[in-house]
Amino acid sequence: MSIRLVKMIAPTHTVLEGGGFKVRRPSSMGQLMSPFLLLDEMGPMEYGPGEAVGAPSHPHRGFETVTYMMAGEMEHEDSAGNSGKITPGDVQWMTAGRGVVHSEMPSEKMMEQGGLMHGFQIWVNLPAKNKMMAPRYQEIASSDSPTVEKDGIWARVIAGDCLGVNSSIDTVIPITYVHVKMSQGSNLLQKINQGLNAMIYVFKGSVQIDSAKVEDGSLAILTDGDEVQLSCKDSAEFLILAGPQINEPISRYGPFVMNTRDEIIQAIDDYNSGLLG
Fold first, then answer.
1. Considering the domain boundaries, does residue 277 fall inside one?
2. CB of 150 within 8 A of CB of 81?
3. How many folded domains does the chain comprise?
4. 103-136 pLDDT, tens digit each
5. Residue span of the structural domain in which 82 resides
6. By C-alpha distance, which of 217, 247, 260 is closest to 41?
7. Measured CA distances, 50 to 42, 44, 47, 54, 130 (Å)
8. Can you tell me the distance from the alpha carbon of 43 to that of 52, in angstroms, rounded to the nearest whole number?
């Protein structure tokens, strides 16, 4: 077995997205994070009544969006007639494929009462052969989202596996996505198949990976290997992400991620013509 170490640590910066909601986003994107195109930590943000904001109707093509809520509520609907509510612990894995137009807005309860909003949205790239696949949704309620608690560690296994627990999500490409909480003095050995890109995003406290300390608001890009060893002196909360390198050209324009400029132009034309989604 070979141990993964920290190759580099990327800080985050804060930007406004959608209707003006605050997100923390790692400054290092692109091939280093492949197949992940974007990692946004939404909040945490405390809203008063009538203050919460979201992402009004917008299109996607060529990739997947994964929304994971930890606090607050969002309601979504799309051009295919799908709609629902995402509450704490829920996961929505949306494969946009050839195209969908959707919105994600605060729930009626959030607008009336206000409250804390905190969660993540991650964009996962699709290989060229899958970019025009039929759109699909996988909505996993908190009660059906597998969790495990052992030796001072709590984990929700959104995709992949952790501590012997497997996710029920069907992913197009092999993805690991685990939300971990570690208590003081705990240790975690996470297996990650060799050849996959892997990273740790810390959003509370800090974790130790060999001699490297990864603190709140930092993304650690890992070296290759079979497993990563994490230890915690105090307490920490973080995401483990891993997936295959997609060695294909990327042509990107806002919510469209394709392989060529012509494909982007086609996506824009399809959207303007009402054909997308």
1. no
2. no
3. 1
4. 888 989 989 999 999 999 999 999 999 999 999 8
5. 6-272
6. 217
7. 18, 17, 8, 12, 40
8. 11
